[in-house]
Amino acid sequence: MMGNIMLHWIDRQPVRWISNQLPKVGRLLLLLCLLLFLSACGEAGPRLTEEIAPEELPTGIGRGFPVATLHGIDNDDTGLTPGAMPPNFYMVLDDGRYLSLANLHGHPVLINFWATWCGP
User: Least enclosed by CB within 10 Å: which of 9, 29, 69, 120?
Assistant: First the structure.
């Protein structure tokens, strides 16, 4: 019964019904286009969980990052040997001051590198 009344009303005033429905349909289409665009924004690069072969890692300062002996790879020209002075770098302390590794010369230093997604 209600459906027949609605169809009769639409038949009598089609332009008004269509103009009332367009904003709703337009918003829905805009939302669908936005979702489609955002789903296509992903980069098709290597996944973070993929392993990298040791020979693909950078082995020298200036070509990426310094890598010590890893799985039997020689240090070639990096100069990083056990007991040798590491390259100087700066770090920011909790209170905002900078500290250079060279300032700690003569003191025992433990450098613990770890990823941001797992604790030390």
Answer: 120
Alpha-carbon distance of 76 to 59, in angstroms, equals 8
Q: Which of 100, 80, 104 is nearest to 91 (CA)?
A: 100
- At residue 49's C-alpha, the angle toward residues 42 and 115, to 5°, is 100
Residues in the chain: 120
d(CA 13, CA 109): 83
CB-CB contact of 13 with 6 (8 Å): no
Q: Is the distance from CB of 64 to CB of 57 less than 8 angstroms?
A: yes
Residues of the chain with pLDDT below 50 are 46, 48-49, 61-73, 75
Residue 31 identity (one-letter amino acid)? L
